[in-house]
Every structure is written in structure tokens, then in C-alpha cells.
Design goal:
With about 250 residues, this protein is α/β, with parallel strands linked by helices. Helices cover about 40% and strands about 15% of the residues. The protein has an 8-stranded parallel beta sheet with strand order 1-2-3-4-5-6-7-8, with helices on both faces.
């Protein structure tokens, strides 16, 4: 069965851990049978969105199994809007990424609202790093942006209950549950809250987190064979308009 990872990163992080270049991403993908990975540049997330996105463009040109998120910085919105258009024009970027912690902007802020407008105008899915109860604001924010679709990264983190409620309320919110703390029952709670399997996606947070954690969460979620297929790859194909067959896997030393 194919696997598409919708939440990953390329590049080193300012933490004491084993991470690095795209070859490392691909080694982990081969180890766990991941066919495609949607990545943002670590540099773009934590330091300089434009420079990081530019570096990622070069990486994507050489690695067909990686597709890109262009990071949008809500503090530099005009610059980010232009950069998002530039990235999408390459055909190798399929979405946008916004982090809430590093820019220091909450979901309900004016700056974040402007960033949502930029992504809505571009017409691509948004991976939103969401952590905390402000995730409950998302249905209201999406109501005035009919073209915007948001993947709630980490399913809201510690606010996974609030994220489940928001996704049950709004059919343009998707959940992916990667997180270092694998709280039992997160996916079951989302489904019991009314989130359909068609809006659950597989993400790993690689290379920050080894993909085995997220694969274990999916394994233990009690999906049927058909549901597992949707979560591991078909939902991502539908959301991002991806095409089959996927690039062949290649082992890296």
C-alpha cells in the first residue's frame, strides 16, 4: 500500500538531534515504506521563510519523491505573498505552511488573518502548526474564506479535543496526528466527535520525529483496510490533486 506523509521537513534544526539533508529524509522514507513526503524547509520555519523556501526549491528539483510547502511568515505578509506565488510557479510546491510559535502570532491575530487570505487566494491547502485552544477559532475563520482548506498540524497538539470539535464543525478542516506525546484515543475521539475518515491524514513530523511513532498511532487506531488506505494516501491524493503512479522508491546509503 502506498504511503504519503503530509507533514515533514528538510534541513537541520537548532536542537540536539539526528537530522540533516534530504538524503536523510529519503533513508527514513525507505525504511518505513513512505512513497511521497510533503516537506517544508526547517530554515524557513524557524528563521527566514524566503531564504528557506529558496533553498527548498533547489532540493525539490533533485528529489521527485519530495513535494514542497512554501512557508508563509505572517509578520512579512507582502514578501511572503510574492514568495508563495514564486514557489507555486515551479510546480514542485503543492501547499503552504504557517507556524504559529516561531512568528509569535496566534491563530486569532490580525497578522494570521492576513496570512490566511494570502493562502486562500493562492488556492492551495495550508498546513497549520496548531497548538492550544485557539484552534477552536478555525471554523469561523474559514467561513469567510470559502476556498481555504487547512490541515491542522499535530491535530492541535495538546488541544486535540478542541481540534476534533472544530474539524467536526467545518468540512474544510483536516487532522493529522503526529506528535511526540502519543496520547491514547486521539483518533478515536476525533471520529466519535464526527470527523469522517476522509479528513484524516498521515503525517510524521520527520525528521524531527522518527516516522515509527506516527505509524504506530495509525496502526493502533482500529481502521478497516479501506479506511487505512484512505488515511495513508488516498485522502492526500484527493486534497492535493496528486497523480499516480508515484515516483519509484530508491534506497539511499
Amino acid at each position: 500500500m502506498p504511503i504519503i506523509d503530509v507533514h515533514a521537513h528538510v534541513g537541520p534544526w537548532p536542537f540536539h538531534m539526528d537530522n540533516g539533508d534530504a538524503a536523510y529524509n529519503l533513508r527514513l522514507m525507505d525504511r518505513y515504506g513512505i512513497d511521497l513526503q510533503l516537506v517544508s524547509a526547517a530554515e524557513a520555519v524557524v528563521y527566514d521563510a524566503v531564504a528557506g523556501n529558496a533553498a527548498l526549491r533547489d532540493v525539490l528539483a533533485w528529489h521527485p519523491r519530495l513535494l514542497g510547502y512554501a512557508v508563509v511568515n505572517p509578520n512579512r505578509i507582502e514578501e511572503s505573498a510574492e514568495d508563495l506565488r514564486r514557489c507555486l510557479a515551479t510546480g514542485r510546491f503543492v501547499g503552504a505552511k504557517i507556524h504559529t510559535t516561531y512568528p509569535g502570532r496566534l491563530i486569532g491575530s490580525h497578522e494570521m488573518s492576513e496570512a490566511f487570505d494570502v493562502v486562500a487566494e493562492a488556492g492551495v491547502p495550508l498546513l497549520l502548526h496548531a497548538w492550544g485552544p485557539e484552534v477552536a477559532l478555525l471554523p469561523e475563520l474559514l467561513a469567510s474564506r470559502p476556498g481555504l482548506r487547512i490541515i491542522v498540524g499535530h491535530a492541535g497538539g495538546d488541544a486535540w479535543r478542541e481540534a476534533a470539535g472544530a474539524a467536526a464543525e467545518c468540512d474544510r478542516l483536516y487532522l493529522e496526528h503526529c506528535r511526540t506525546v502519543t496520547d491514547a484515543g486521539r483518533i478515536a475521539y476525533a471520529r466519535e466527535s464526527g470527523v469522517p475518515v476522509e479528513r484524516l491524514l498521515f503525517g510524521t513530523d520527520s525528521t524531527l520525529i522518527d516516522p515509527c511513532w506516527s505509524l504506530g498511532v495509525i496502526r493502533d487506531a482500529g481502521f478497516s483496510a479501506d479506511e487505512l488506505e484512505r488515511v495513508l494516501w488516498r485522502n492526500a491524493v484527493d486534497l492535493f490533486g496528486l497523480t499516480e503512479p508515484f515516483p519509484p522508491r530508491r534506497a539511499f546509503p
